[in-house]
Write a structure and sequence with these properties.
This protein is of the alpha/beta class and 255 residues long. The chain has seven helices and eleven strands. Strands 3-2-1-4-5-11-10 form a seven-stranded mixed sheet, with helices on both faces. A four-stranded antiparallel sheet has the order 6-7-8-9. Strand 8 and strand 9 form a beta hairpin. It is globular and about 60 Å long.
C-alpha cells in the first residue's frame, strides 16, 4: 500500500521526500509496468505520469522504451525524480503543476496516476476537475489508468491500522484512523531521524488525509468527463472487484 502524496492541492510532501522514497516497495512499480504493458501491447507511446512523486514509475517506464513526462506539485519530489532519472542516464521532462490544472501541457497517448494520489483530492468537484483535465490532454481513444483505495480499505482496514519501521539511522511509525467524511481516513506519520553530529534523534510529524468513493461513483464522474468506456478492476486488472477489494484499478478510454 502506498503513502505517496505529491498531487493534491495544499497536500505536498515536505523535506521528508527521501524518507518516503526509501520506504516504498519496488515490487509495486513492477506490477504497474506489467499492467500498462498488458493494456497497451506496445512501447511507442507518450505517457504522462500524473503525481509522479520521486519518479520511480516514470524512470521504469522510460527504461522500458516509453516516452514519459512526469508532473507533480511537490518540488522536493521532482528534485528526487530528476536525480533518479540522471542516475539512470535518462532525460525525462519533469514539470511542477497541480493536477487540477494541466492547461500548459501537451497531449499524450496515455495518462497514469499510481498509488492512490487521486485520494488526496479534497472533494468530488476537484476529482471531476482532474478527470476533465485528463480528458482534454488525451486524443480520441486515449487511455487514462489510475488506482485508488476502496471504501473497504478506508472503512474496514485502515481504522486502527499501525505500522512501524526501524533501521540504524531512522524509525518510522504510521497510525491510521477514520476521518470525518464518509470513506475518508487520516494517517498520522512520525519520523525519528538521527542527527549524524549529535547522535540524537529528531522527530518529524505529518498528517495526511485520504478520501475515496464507491466504484460506481468514479465511473459516473468519468463518463460525465468524456470517457466513453471506463472499467474498474482489482489486482492490477486481473480480477473483478469484490466486497473486500482494497484497491480499485480504473481503465478509461476517451471518446
Amino acid at each position: 500500500m502506498g503513502y505517496r502524496i505529491g498531487a493534491a492541492k495544499n497536500m505536498i510532501y515536505s523535506n521528508f521526500a527521501q524518507l518516503y522514497d526509501d520506504l516504498m516497495e519496488p515490487a509495486i512499480y513492477e506490477e504497474w509496468e506489467q499492467f500498462i504493458a498488458r493494456l497497451t501491447g506496445k512501447k511507442d507511446m507518450t505517457i504522462l505520469d500524473l503525481a509522479c512523486g520521486t519518479g520511480r514509475m516514470a524512470v521504469k517506464l522510460a527504461q522500458e522504451g516509453y516516452t514519459v513526462t512526469g508532473v507533480d506539485l511537490s518540488d522536493e519530489m521532482l528534485a528526487l525524480a530528476d536525480q533518479r532519472a540522471h542516475s539512470q542516464k535518462l532525460t525525462i521532462p519533469l514539470l511542477q503543476a497541480n493536477m487540477t490544472d494541466l492547461s500548459e501541457l501537451a497531449q499524450f497517448d496515455m495518462v497514469i496516476s499510481c498509488l492512490d494520489s487521486l485520494c488526496y483530492l479534497q472533494n468530488p468537484q476537484e476529482l471531476k476537475r482532474v478527470f476533465l483535465q485528463v480528458a482534454q490532454h488525451l486524443p480520441a481513444g486515449g487511455l487514462f489508468v489510475f488506482d485508488v483505495i476502496s471504501p473497504y480499505q478506508t472503512d474496514k482496514i485502515y481504522p486502527g491500522y499501525t505500522y512501524s519501521y526501524t533501521n540504524d539511522e531512522q524509525a518510522f511509525t504510521w497510525e491510521s484512523y477514520s476521518g470525518e467524511q464518509r470513506h475518508s481516513v487520516i494517517h498520522d506519520l512520525n519520523f525519528f531521524v538521527e542527527d549524524k553530529k549529535t547522535k540524537q534523534y529528531e522527530r518529524f510529524t505529518e498528517i495526511h488525509h485520504e478520501r475515496t468513493y464507491e466504484a460506481d461513483y468514479y465511473l459516473k464522474l468519468l463518463l460525465e468527463s468524456g470517457f466513453y468506456k471506463a472499467k474498474v478492476f482489482g489486482n492490477f486488472g486481473r480480477e473483478e472487484i469484490k466486497e473486500q477489494t482494497t484497491r480499485f484499478f480504473f481503465v478509461c478510454h476517451k471518446k
